[in-house]
Amino acid sequence: MPARTWVPPGPYDLHRTLGVLRRGPGDPAFAVRDDEIWRACRTPEGPGTLCLAARAAEGHVAATAWGPGAPWLLERLPELLGESDDPAALTARHRVVHEARRRHPGVRLARTGLVLESLIPSILEQKVTSDEAYRAWRLLLQRHGTPAPGPWDRLRVMPEPRGWALIPSWEWHRAGVDAKRSSTILRAVRAAARMEEAAGMDLGDATRRLTAIPGIGPWTAAETLQRALGAPDAITVGDLHLPKIIGYALTGRRGTTDEEMLQLLAPYAGQRHRAARLILLSGLVPPRRAPRFPVGDIARL
User: Fold this and answer.
1) In the predicted model, what is the mean pLDDT of the chain?
2) Residue 28 is part of a domain; what is its CATH number?
3) Where is 40: in which H helix or E strand?
4) Whole-prediction pTM
5) Whose CA is closest to 42, among 195, 151, 159, 124?
6) Contact at 8 Å (CB) between 198 and 208?
7) 77 with 145, same domain?
8) For the chain, which has fewer Cβ within 10 Å, the N-terminal or C-terminal residue?
9) Containing structural domain, residue 42
10) pLDDT, tens digit, for every residue of 129-150?
């Protein structure tokens, strides 16, 4: 049970920094218990579980890890927690961004260094509601993942690439995943080594590497690389809600398009994802005019 501590270089918010790695409230690979964050991963060295806790009195984050992947996780702990991230690289050009950064000075961009871990759930989120995607991720890990090392048997490690490839078609259907998304995942895991190489690339090269797989477009690549690389400029384009939120927060207008969002974020070139993240933290969203999309369930078909 190896352990390590990390001293943040300034104000630090562990839960908001790592919260973006959680895929819904029932994510079998991520949990919060007694102010601790638990994360189960499939590392290049094998499965590992990481437990993190912010010790405010001591001024550090304490980490404990289990499993064959424990040394890998602890070695890369500073990168995961955002040590190499530079929040000061963003110059606030809007009052909303300035106020969000003032209220949340401890938010950094996490860098997991693991591509498939973020790519597969991002593919599951294509063209469906978040609830549908979270349910699919939960069911697939519960049925086909492996118990995470360590003391908490609730956690599951996602399957290795071959394990994803062996999931039968009816199990994808039972989880509510259509053939288009499951086929994209299968193409990605067949090129698993090439996908994981993207963790060592710059944003442009990594995006090209991921989008070379049919079914992976700019939206999925950005959602993946925001987490795997901690890329501050990986702005999500093609999202149903993000342009409307950005446009409403910065201009008060509704119905902002992707093109208009990119124009509004142009002053943050190189930091557009960070700016968007701060805007989301502001809580400024357009009032809802229509009911939520109904949650589909193809497993009933």
Assistant:
1) 95
2) 3.30.310.20
3) strand 36-43
4) 0.94
5) 159
6) no
7) no
8) C
9) 3-85
10) 999 999 999 999 999 999 999 9
